[in-house]
Design brief:
219 residues, alpha+beta, two-stranded antiparallel ribbon
Length: 219
Amino acid sequence: MGIKYQMWLTYNAEKEKIQLPVLPESFQTKNGSKNDSVNIAGLGEIVIIQSRPALQFSFSSFFPAAKFPGLQVDRITNPLSLIQKINSWKAGKEPVHFIATACGADLYCTIEDFSYSEEGGDPGTYQYSITLKEYREITVRQVKVNIPKAAATVKKEEPRVDNTVQPKTYTVAGGDCLWNIAKRIYGSGSQYTKIYEANKGVIGGNPNLILTGQVLTIP
């Protein structure tokens, strides 16, 4: 029997994905009104209706360091690597794709806030809180223009969100090794396996043998 309720964050046109391993106990959705009101002499208060504000989602959960009953994924991913990935998405210029199957959320969002801390009684487990805000591209309203002998109406097209990220590259310099490259880029040399897995076709079977001038893709 499959899991009916899942929550996902994806990035770079679904090339990077995180399924939340533990579902949050609560899930807040904010859909406030941005309507303004003014007072006009003799008429009282008049409400000026504006377009709907962006939806906002907030929830808290944790990335576990070990398996336990109720886990939503088949295998554990290092919690710190998940945090680093979300931080890199937050710093990027493209929105994430947020999917929550139970409540029907399926939309692009910006990561407005992401905070985390290591759980004291469970080393390696990280508590986190995240706030997402609906991402909507700016569209220009098209109007019908009367032109002599020709009248044309341009149809309004729905915007298409493209969160594809161009791959980053690194050119190997003299004295480089994958450990030092990973430490420089990710802040941790132990992340060198990510670079190796993405560049096996360039490096070959031995991650310790990289050559000056090789261009490596940085995932």
